């Protein structure tokens, strides 16, 4: 039986709708009462979640190029442990656990999208190097900048725009926390799915029982099509990537995959037809093959990805233009707060208290000075001009793109941070070369600068989700803001260690780690810093595609990401999205469909978390010298056939597991 207190915990009817004139939103927790929030329990669990999910997200992001948002799994675990420990009034504590732990995905995305490029380029330029301290400091400083830049925009996004933005991830996480407070047992299906998905991915990564990809090359006709027509189809059969596809949903997965197919099935074979005997290497002298002699994969790496890069960069520019009104409105709101008389915190409702703008201003100045000193002593070898230009670029770009990141999260739940960082790198490279910093020193400097900006933007997007969750539930924003800094430092240290471990185990230049974003960063920065020039024509084609898609009201960023990420990592997103559609539409009863969809989100989150965590364990075993994988078996087409069979069974289990007691 649920207690009276549990039954009383529910979101108000106007939580997701626009407020009428004079209407106020009253959160679940009363602004006039104090509740348990920050204490040893919540801080300890928050830090544990930050460490665990930083390691998991770093592995998954580098292995398959997708960083999952940890908010939902962490919220479910928080609910599970507080229920098991019979905590009294745990809702505020669970928000703090989730907020600290969610630093993991934000810091990981910022670090792994850029800094592995140093290791990738190291294979070509042995004099380049990255240390744990460089990774840690750049990630930590970027995270702190993202938090400080985002706080002045909190009231605009979470309060003033109430009901105008859907906040999909914040909505799902809030529902999990509320369900847990009502006595729900949602941790059970998540843990079960984590076990299934984790073991499934573990036997592939550790023992190689079957291939991790299925391709059309398993039959002779497919081999012929790949060699002659440059047409190939691939799908990664992992549990974690499938789970990602389910959460992304059919709409965006479809657009992403369309972008991928446009490159792999139109541009790649089209280039082989148009330039069969031409060696197109004006921007990359290492290309020595004629296009017609290349495999589809080689054509994609040499030309197709650059078109995707151009599309991502232009989508980022379009995002800033669209968000200019938001920037002005939020800055105006912050200026009023800073310029107004100090009314005293006692006059501000508990649920609307932020870190004071005076502290934010001082903290921002101190952090920017610290970043400039890091650039001066640790990156630019004592060159004051380079350090000043570098910090100016980082501060301006991070501030402008902060609202783009928050806006993207508020509308679609995904942060286009990789595209914005690519544009940062291109701009940083052009400017730094203009002031005299080029070559390998310029590459390291630009990548470190990109890492700081990327982490700042990733953190800003992630943090607006946490603050929206807190707003709906009624926690104290200043407590979330203060402890977010701790989570950032913990996550930065963890991701630095995991990145160095994975480099020692696999090697970023080996091809065993996809690291698509970091590979793109390396591909962009190498020619720019060496005076070879960049594939501006290909970038321009991608930019033009993004403009046309925007005009047609098609999400240009999703399409461009599909053009850029390898085909085998996009097709499982579509499969996961299709399963999402099937699970949520096969019944005529809307409540049944909703129940199945929510359970599917839990199971998909389990697949992601379990697969990623087991991936880290597999990497540790490989690092320790345990590697029983038989490469000749993986080269056998039968390993791909077995892979497809296992994948079908996994999907069947997923669909079966979405059934609930009232939804069979």
Structural account:
The structure is a single chain. The protein is mainly alpha-helical and 664 residues long. It has 26 helices and two strands. It has helices at residues 4-8, 40-64, 71-84, 91-101, 103-112, 116-122, 132-150, 154-160, 168-181, 187-207, 220-229, 239-248, 250-274, 296-339, 357-379, 384-412, 417-434, 439-473, 477-505, 516-529, 536-551, 556-564, 567-583, 590-623, 631-635, 637-657, and strands at residues 213-215, 234-236. It has a two-stranded antiparallel ribbon with strand order 1-2. The protein is globular and about 75 Å long. 54% of the residues are buried. Mean pLDDT is 83; it is low at 1-7.
Task: Give keywords.
two-stranded antiparallel sheet, 2 strands, about 675 residues
Radius of gyration: 24 Å
Percent of residues in β-strands = under 5%
Helicity level, as a percent range?
over 70%
Shape: globular
Write down the overall mean pLDDT.
Answer: 83
Low-pLDDT segments, ≥5 res: 1-7
Distance between the termini: 24 Å
- Could you give the count of β-strands? 2
The number of distinct helices, counting runs of at least 4 residues, comes to: 26
Biggest sheet features: 2 strands, antiparallel
SSE sequence, one letter per element? HHHHHHHHHHEHEHHHHHHHHHHHHHHH
SS content category = mainly alpha
| Largest sheet: spatial strand order | 1-2
Question: What is the quaternary state of this protein?
Answer: single chain
């Amino acid at each position: 039986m649920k207690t009276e207190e549990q039954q009383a915990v529910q979101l108000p009817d106007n939580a997701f709708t626009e407020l009428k004139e004079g209407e106020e939103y009253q959160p679940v927790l009363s602004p006039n009462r104090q509740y348990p929030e920050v204490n040893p329990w919540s801080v300890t669990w928050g830090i544990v979640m930050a460490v665990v999910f930083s390691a998991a997200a770093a592995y998954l992001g580098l292995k398959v190029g997708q960083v999952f948002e940890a908010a939902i799994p962490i919220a479910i675990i928080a609910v599970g442990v507080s229920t098991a420990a019979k905590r009294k009034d745990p809702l505020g504590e669970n928000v703090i656990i989730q907020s600290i732990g969610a630093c993991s995905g934000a810091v990981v995305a910022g670090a792994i999208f850029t800094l592995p490029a140093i290791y990738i380029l190291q294979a070509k330029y042995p004099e380049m190097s990255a240390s744990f301290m460089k990774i840690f400091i750049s990630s930590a400083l970027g995270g702190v900048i993202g938090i400080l830049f985002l706080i002045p925009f909190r009231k605009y996004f979470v309060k003033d725009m109430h009901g105008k933005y859907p906040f999909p991830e914040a909505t799902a996480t809030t529902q999990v926390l509320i369900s847990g407070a009502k006595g729900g047992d949602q941790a059970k299906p998540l843990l079960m799915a984590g076990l299934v998905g984790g073991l499934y991915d573990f036997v592939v990564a550790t023992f190689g029982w079957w291939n991790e990809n299925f391709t059309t090359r398993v039959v002779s006709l497919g081999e012929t099509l790949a060699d002659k027509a440059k047409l190939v189809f691939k799908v990664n059969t992992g549990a974690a990537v499938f789970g990602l596809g389910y959460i992304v949903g059919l709409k965006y997965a479809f657009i992403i995959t369309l972008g991928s197919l446009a490159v792999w099935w139109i541009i790649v074979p089209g280039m082989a037809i148009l330039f069969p005997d031409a060696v197109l290497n004006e921007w990359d002298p290492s290309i020595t093959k004629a296009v017609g002699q290349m495999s589809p994969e080689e054509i994609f790496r040499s030309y197709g990805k650059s078109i995707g890069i151009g599309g991502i960069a232009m989508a980022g520019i379009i995002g800033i233009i669209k968000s200019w009104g938001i920037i002005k409105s939020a800055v105006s709101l912050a200026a009023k707060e800073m310029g107004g008389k100090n009314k005293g915190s006692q006059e501000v409702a508990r649920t609307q208290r932020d870190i004071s703008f005076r502290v934010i201003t001082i903290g921002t100045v101190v952090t920017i000075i610290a970043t400039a000193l890091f650039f001066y002593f640790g990156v630019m070898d004592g060159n004051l001009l380079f350090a000043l230009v570098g910090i100016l670029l980082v501060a301006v770009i991070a501030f402008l793109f902060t609202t783009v990141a928050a806006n993207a999260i508020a509308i679609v739940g995904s942060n286009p941070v990789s595209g914005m960082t690519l544009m940062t790198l291109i701009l940083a490279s052009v400017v730094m070369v203009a002031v005299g910093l080029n070559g390998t020193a310029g590459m390291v400097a630009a990548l470190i600068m990109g890492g700081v900006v990327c982490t700042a933007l990733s953190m800003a997007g992630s943090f607006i989700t946490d603050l929206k969750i807190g707003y709906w539930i009624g926690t104290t924003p200043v407590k979330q803001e203060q402890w977010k800094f701790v989570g950032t430092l913990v996550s930065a240290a963890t991701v630095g260690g995991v990145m160095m471990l994975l480099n020692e185990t696999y090697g970023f230049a080996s091809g065993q780690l996809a690291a698509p974003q970091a590979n793109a960063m390396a591909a962009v920065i190498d020619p720019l810093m060496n005076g070879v020039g960049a594939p501006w024509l290909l970038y321009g084609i991608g930019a033009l595609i993004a403009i046309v898609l925007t005009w047609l009201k098609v999400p240009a960023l999703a399409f461009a990401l599909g053009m850029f990420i390898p085909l085998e990592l996009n097709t499982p997103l579509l499969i996961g999205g299709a399963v999402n559609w099937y699970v949520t539409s096969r019944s005529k009863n809307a409540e049944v469909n909703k129940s199945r969809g929510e359970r599917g989100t839990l199971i998909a989150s389990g697949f992601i978390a379990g697969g990623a965590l087991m991936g880290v364990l597999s990497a540790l075993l490989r690092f320790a010298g345990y590697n029983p994988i038989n490469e000749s078996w993986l080269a056998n087409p039968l390993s791909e056939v077995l892979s497809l069979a296992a994948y079908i069974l996994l999907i069947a289990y997923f669909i079966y597991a979405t059934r609930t007691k009232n939804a069979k």
